[in-house]
Amino acid sequence: MKYRALANTGVFVSELCFGAMTFGGSGFWSVIGQNEQDEVNAMVNRCLEAGINFFDTANVYSFGQSETMLGQALGDKRKDVVIATKVRGRMGEGANEVGLSRVHIMNELHASLKRLNTDYIDLYQIHGFDPVTGMEDTLRTLDDVVRSGKVRYIGCSNLAAWQLMKFMGISQFKNLEAFVSLQAYYSIAGRDLEREVVPLLKDQNLGLLVWSPLAGGFLSGKYTRQNSGEEGSRRTKFDFPPIDKERAYNVVEVMQSVAEAHEATVPQVALAWLLHQSVVTSVIIGSKRMAQLEDNLKAVDLTFTPEELAQLNEVSQLPLEYPGWMIKQQSGGRRPGEAQY
User: Fold this and answer.
1) Which position among 3, 61, 120, 322 bears the catalytic label?
2) Superfamily name and number for 3-330
3) pTM, whole model, 2 decimals?
4) Beta pairing, strands 282-285 & 16-19
5) Active-site residue, 124 included
């Protein structure tokens, strides 16, 4: 297992992070997974053996069950790992049991600490944007919880580039704690993040934590033009995240040939492609079964030739949209010897 710096924090996290969304699986979350405690214990222990020191969950995953089960599985290993969790989603029927207000954040932080059986959270992330709470109010609350020692670092998830940059600007201008990472959807079948967000992350030196690297199971190897997936599989019941399936089928065909050349699997190729992207800090893997986890763990040993990487990049490349094509056209001609625009 290799380790990468989380932005400029000086903290190193494993390049694979284990996601706990499948833990518990009550209500809506049963579609994602229904791992019971003995399965959770076995997979967490296997992750630790493999060198994974980074675990991600959220308060809303099975309405707290995921955090509780992760905390129990880690036990006395808690001090050896980095735990990330999230806040924003609805946790009850009350008017203030959702969002990024001071009331909700404070209530949910204390609940998460109790469920995780810890007195601090390494990375506390907002799970999305809250249109009715002022950004400064949210940041001041997050600044307070860091200063209290209950949170070490703060991060965000599922933000647009302008939202993230505005948060960063407020933090700098008001001298408040700033986000160190963004957790976002990114895969070889869905490279939308590269349009606006990836350049921002590189410019601001923020970490990128990737969720759904297998595009909601589409890159599991079960989905091809000839086979739309097994009856009852996750994509047949929960078609998320949305992808351009025609383009994705083209990508899968190239991935299959690369996988065969390395005696690997399509999921391993999908994960390894992300690990070849310099902007990526850690890729979050989640497994319903131990066999899936074992397969995913092998991705860290898969290295592409320059030709294979070029093939994968070309078939999955985003079509340029404005202003992307204009920026590309105008990017030359500013250095001696370059073609003039």
Assistant:
1) 61
2) NADP-dependent oxidoreductase domain (3.20.20.100)
3) 0.95
4) parallel
5) no
